[in-house]
Amino acid sequence: MNTQAATRKPLLATALKDATLAALVAFGLFGLLIGLRTGLGPNAALVLTTRFEELAIVVAVVFAGSLLRSLLFGRGPLMAGRFKPLLESRAARIIRRLAVPALFALAICWPLLTYHNRYLLDLGILVLTYVMLGWGLNIVVGLAGLLDLGYVAFYAVGAYSYALLAQNFELSFWICLPVAGILAAFWGVLLGFPVLRLRGDYLAIVTLAFGEIIRLVLTNWQSFTGGPNGIGNIPRPSFFGLPFNEEEDGFAAFFGLEFSSIHRIVFLFYVILALALITNWVTLRLRRLPVGRAWEAMREDEIACRALGINTTNTKLTAFAMGAMFAGIAGSFFATRQGFISPESFTFNESALVLAIVVLGGMGSQVGIAIAALAMLGGFELFRGLDQYRMLVFGAAMVVIMLWRPRGLVSTREPSLHLPKPEPSKGAA
After folding, report:
1. pTM surpassing 0.85?
2. Inter-residue long-range contacts of 235-240, CB under 8 Å, 24+ positions, other chains counted
3. Which residues contact 425 (CB under 8 A, 6 or more apart)?
4. In degrees, to the nearest 5, what angle opens at C-alpha 398 toward C-alphas 395 and 401?
5. Which residue among 52, 187, 369, 414 is buried most deeply as judged by most CB within 10 Å?
6. DSSP H or E run through 98
């Protein structure tokens, strides 16, 4: 009993010390962000107001969380191995098996469940768009192991390609869709050539610069891209030649329905759902091909990959081209959905968000990326009413996920290729 009491006393003292230090750090970080607030008073004078109650609540939450963490798990990192018995339980396996059909059923039924809520329909389209972008970037980052921070550049190329082709040559959405993907893939190859010898941080810096170059070109080439004013009145897609309008040749009149603007939104939802599913199917098929196995081999060890006789030049270029193609297709859909595009829609924040989805979901995991996109974008909208606390909660959730699951929500997946089982020898009894 005395030994246990002596052991608990240093543990409690250490936990209190860590919790106090964490509370002081929180006070220093959020003292000016939350404790003080500036505003405009009478005669446009600057007024400083205090919010010490909110600051005290944040510091208390940090203190309690740090104390509880230290008492339960000690000072070590919250690795997933500590929760292995729970994660490997039968219930967890059942949940993992049901995740894919559950997400698919939710996606199919989402327009039926939210038909009278335009906001939720638009949110569903946004989530599916980022799911498609995440699956495209997963080819470059998750499978090939190439850190790309300029992925939004291919997204912008696809959007501007569709807008310019549809307006200047009056081509339909279904013709411009593959053309935008091919043009984005072409730019992906152009990016791939200069970075063939780069890896790690150097590759990230070059791809980041490429994304900024594309954005600046779109901003300054006013005679071609419209510059900061962007491009408006982008043509909308039709349903096999039936436009979504109130005319007699419109979609509603053809099927004998009462005209509603929701028809076009539902149609766009199923279009992006089909594009995302095609992206997923193509990615899974590519994984089983030699090029997919070459991507994964290069991700693990590029030097060993070369020693095995794999052409790393073609492997890198195909990874950049395939990832850029899906980004270009998603960009063309973004342009027709918005009806207006400008360089402000293709900033570095978009690349960072897509990369965060891939990393948090688990690099190489298709299901994990879909769950991460749903959690990040849906959760971001869920906390929209919290104003200034929204980004704080969002960032804290990302930190917790990275501490708990450092390799992503779905850190393991089935191998792309299984070796055949050895046949039993004939002489065996």
Report:
1. no
2. 235/166, 235/167, 235/172, 235/173, 235/336, 236/173, 236/264, 236/336, 236/339, 237/172, 237/173, 237/174, 237/267, 237/268, 237/271, 237/336, 238/172, 238/173, 239/267
3. none
4. 150
5. 369
6. helix 90-113
Q: Tell me the pLDDT tens digit for each residue of 119-167.
A: 889 989 999 999 999 999 999 988 888 888 889 999 999 999 999 999 8
Closest CA to 352 of 203, 186, 211, 143: 211
Please count the residues of the chain. Answer: 429
Residue 166's nearest CA partner among 264, 233, 111 is: 233
* Residue 233, H or E segment: none
Task: In whole angstroms, give the CA distance from residue 169 to residue 339.
Answer: 17
Q: Token pair for residue 138?
A: 């997963």
Which tokens go with 336?
Answer: 């027709």
Quickly tell me which residue has 């609540």 as its tokens.
Answer: 57
Mean pLDDT of 268-293: 91
Strand duo 36-40 + 46-50: pairing:
antiparallel
